[in-house]
Amino acid sequence: MTDPPQVDSDDVEDAHPFILRLFITGATPNSVRAITNLKRLCEKHLPGRYTLEIIDIHQQPEHAELEQLIALPLLIKEQPLPQRRLIGDMSDTPRVLAALGLPGSKS
Predict the structure, then answer these.
(1) Which one, of 99, 103, 101, 104, lies nearest residue 88 by Cα?
(2) Residue 32 domain-assigned?
(3) Running DSSP on this structure, what letter comes out for residue 59?
(4) Mean pLDDT of the region 48-73
(5) How far is the C-alpha of 102 from the C-alpha of 84, rounded, in Å?
(6) How many domains does the chain have?
(7) Residue 22: which of 68, 89, 95, 102 has the closest Cα?
(8) pLDDT at 48
């Protein structure tokens, strides 16, 4: 008799791609930093496993009211659940990893 196949925890995470939405205010320094930092972090920790939508509320102001935005830049992790929100320029890597529910958030 053979043992059942082992399920790697990385395989489980791969089955659930991350859906992220970053709300910004134009090309301000904080917005540019947030985009750069988040893209770098996602490429390092979620290569090929994420979708990032960048929404400029100057170009799409209806999103500010719809999402009840109070501060920007704002990252919303839509999937996998639970939904999380994080405000700032995404430069605090452990904090961003914790918000995404990824390992390494304590380093």
Answers:
(1) 99
(2) yes
(3) T
(4) 92
(5) 12
(6) 1
(7) 89
(8) 96
